[in-house]
Amino acid sequence: MRSLDDIRDEYEFLEGDERYRLLIELGRELEPMPDALKTDATLVRGCSAAVWIYPTQDGDRLHFLADSNAAITKGIVALVLSAVQDRPAGEVAAMDVMGALAPFDLKNQLSSNRTQGVPNMIALIRDTAARIAAD
Asked: Over the Cα atoms of the chain, what is R_g?
């Protein structure tokens, strides 16, 4: 998975439809999520498209499997994950993920339907990280 900094560097040079294409490409690059993990328990509420996020652990580091049934939304999920993937749970729980995504100006680049679920994705990831960090 590309780093958020690398994605931002590329994103800043693009405009309009090229930015959409980059998001779709990021979604295609996501690690495949087995269908068996796409359950009601892993479904993120409040997204316009179906989004599933499943956390795994390697020591204190979190690794997320995720998927969506919509290409642009899947790219947004990949963007969110690039900010938190394979970091320690305590770091993810304390991270300002929305702040890390601010340079992408998603609210002005995409329709509100596309971005409405982003806070819910982030909340689920941070809540999971906080629960794991507390154990």
From this structure: 14
**Average confidence (pLDDT) over 117-126:** 91
> Can you give the pTM of this predicted structure?
0.91
User: Is there a contact between 97 and 122 (Cβ–Cβ < 8 Å)?
Assistant: yes
Architecture of the 4-134 domain: Alpha-Beta Complex (3.90)
Which residues carry out catalysis?
47
Domain spans, the chain: 4-134
Map 11-73 to HEC letters. Answer: HHCCCHHHHHHHHHHHHHHCCCCCHHHCCCCCECCCCCCCEEEEEEEECCEEEEEEEECCHHH
